[in-house]
Amino acid sequence: DGGITQSPKYLFRKEGQNVTLSCEQNLNHDAMYWYRQDPGQGLRLIYYSQIVNDFQKGDIAEGYSVSREKKESFPLTVTSAQKNPTAFYLCASSASGANVLTFGAGSRLTVL
Amino acid sequence: GQQVMQIPQYQHVQEGEDFTTYCNSSTTLSNIQWYKQRPGGHPVFLIQLVKSGEVKKQKRLTFQFGEAKKNSSLHITATQTTDVGTYFCATLTNDYKLSFGAGTTVTVRA
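^ Those are the sequences you sent over. The predicted structure of the assembly is below.
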């Protein structure tokens, strides 16, 4: 079945460490997105990519970085510059010309 | 930032009752999408509304887009325990990104 795979599901990090969250899709979607979810705040866009080798900042990009070297993959790095990284991170994708999102199961990051 | 506001933030419903949750904007929206996120899960697309005054139904769920395209509602009839979760509305911004509301979290009393 086609879908989006995020890993790891749970991740613990010490302060000052960078971590990378994986997102892989086999839906042949052109666009991919990273959202952050905190209680009571809905989904906030971190980065998005409409095409391979191109990506744009979303509303809360500070302290995060991404790459889009392959159509299927859109990894997110949470850097030590992110002041409050503990959150639930959701990766999503959409087909070209469409705007309906398919989400992965999410990665929950906890900073100790 | 958020272009749509959702009310209420929390909805506690007796099983079998109806309820409505709202999604409001101060500007005209190009479209509205609704997603449902079950506890511990991820958002799943429910429906998209594009036309002024549009009404769509999915079993016990009725979705409506306002005549002025500034608000939308989700009405659930005869609430069941399977309706538990957070319902998000989202709209496409001018730069083709989806902006989500904060969500309405629904709990059901059996």
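Chain B is about 0% helix and 55% strand. Chain B touches chain A through 24 residues (CB under 8 Å).

Shout if you want it in another format.
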